[in-house]
Amino acid sequence: MTDVLMNDFARQWAEVGEDVLKATRRVGASGWYILGQEVQLFEQELASFCGCAAAVGCASGLDAIEIALRALGLAPGQNVLTTPLSAFATTLAITRAGGVPVFVDVDETGGIDLDLAEQAFEADPDLRYFVPVHLYGNPFNLDRLSELKARFGLRIVEDCAQAIGASWRDKPVGSVGDLAALSFYPTKNLGAMGDGGAVLGSEMTLLARCRQLRDYGQSAKYQHELLGLNSRLDELQAAILRDAFLPRLDRWTKRRREIANLYRQALPGLVLPLSSLAHSVAHLFPIKLANRAVQMERLRALGIQTAIHYPSLIPDQPALADYRRSVIGELQQARRLASEELSLPLHPYLTDNEVGRVIESIQACVASSYR
Ligand SMILES: *Cc1c(COP(=O)(O)O)cnc(C)c1O
Questions:
Q1: C-beta 93 within 6 A of ligand 1
Q2: For 300, what's the count of Cα atoms within 13 Å in the CB-facing half-sphere?
Q3: Does ligand 1 come within 6 angstroms of the Cβ of 158?
Q4: Which one of 37, 152, 159, 207 has the fewest beta carbons within 10 angstroms of its own beta carbon?
């Protein structure tokens, strides 16, 4: 029996390979590799998929968050509220933009606790930037976010790197923040064949600033209005995303949701809670498991790959040891998840048989630990 993998790029290539090669030939023959028609066409289709006015392709999800924060006018030394439980890139983008990260705890879903966020905004009038994360593909409460934004006059960048296509009731992720960030890192729901990212938004002046920032801050060739970055999405990646990946995303997401539902039904008691208003895109399937290290090893022996998102909290990372930042409270919930969370295999190419093997293996591991 072959192992059940967290991601299966060999099976993906078998499906998309021909379309990727066609896109590659087209870009090659065009002789135009940076910021041309392919990026523009992909940005248009991406924006319409995400239900926003426009998208700005850039080099990574990390850059998308930094560019968005800078476009919103974040000045060095300003506070930015965010979550301690995410990819390190969420906070790294804040520090690269010169911001001071402020961490509050998550709730039992793993997403940032909006009650605690509200208290933080109330307590500190200098805290007006916010980078919340739709973690695991699960959208947090966007109605609530919208209220907080209006009440406190917040400037928000939604980190949607794990949640493309998700929605809270009828609100798509990325639609409440001033801007939102996507990543096309290969393991994401919409992954490129390399690095890539995008900023999403609806306000044209902000998006124009993002376009300048990704290209040396230029408003026109050799006219530098801002101190920008080199963070351009390649024509090649844009063509591949548009031809081979984006047209399949709805079907892939549907399959991800089916698998997540099978896990959810078979493993009650282990799953994290999820609101019925949250239309998840099932990027990851986290469960809570006591004795995680041992169980992970047992699962590996049974041929089941698993992963951890995330084993330690961002404010505990050595890179931040000497950096200005603040932590509100004890981050108890985030710490519990950091020590107990385990992500099960979840990708569109899992067969029902493989999903069954994962479920049986987890059940066997849990049962044996109570003997
Ligand atoms: C992947 C990810 C990022 C960073 O994206 P890159 O394209 O790898 O730079 C940021 N935030 C979250 C929540 C992510 O999952």
A1: no
A2: 9
A3: no
A4: 37
| Mutation choice for ligand 1 from 95, 185, 214, 283, CB with most ligand atoms inside 8 A | 185
Flag whether pLDDT at 370 surpasses 70: no
The answer to whether the CB of 253 is under 6 A from ligand 1 is no
Cα(67) to centroid of ligand 1, in Å? 14
The sign of the CA dihedral 313, 281, 82, 319 is positive
- Cβ of 60 closer than 6 Å to ligand 1, yes or no, is yes
Instruction: Give me ligand 1 centre to Cα 168, in Å.
Output: 21
Residue-wise pLDDT tens digits, 95-124:
999 999 999 999 999 999 999 999 999 999
> Does ligand 1 lie within 6 Å of residue 62's CB atom?
yes
- Out of 83, 133, 173, 183, mutate this one to test ligand 1's pocket (max ligand atoms within 8 Å of CB): namely 183
What are the distances in angstroms from CA 113 to CA 60, 143, 267, 337?
26, 14, 25, 14
Which DSSP symbol is given to 294? H
- Asked if the model's pLDDT at residue 3 lies above 70, the reply is yes
Write the residue with the smallest CA distance to atom 5 of ligand 1.
61
Candidates 56, 166, 88; CA nearest to 325 is 88
Position 24 confidence tier, pLDDT thresholds 50, 70, 90: very high
Q: How many CB atoms lie within 10 A of CB 32?
A: 12
Count CB atoms within 10 A of the CB of residue 136.
Answer: 25
Q: What percent of the chain has pLDDT over 90?
A: 98
C-alpha dist (Å) from residue 292 to 74, 287, 311, 341: 40, 10, 11, 8
Q: What pLDDT is attached to residue 97?
A: 98
ω before 310 within 30° of 0 (cis)? yes
pTM, whole model, 2 decimals? 0.98
Does 371 score more than 60 pLDDT?
no
**Token pair belonging to 305:** 């790959």
Cα 189-192-197 angle, rounded to 5 deg: 80
The pLDDT value recorded for residue 83 is 98
Give 371 or 3, the one with higher predicted confidence: 3
Q: Is the CB of 67 under 6 A from ligand 1?
A: no
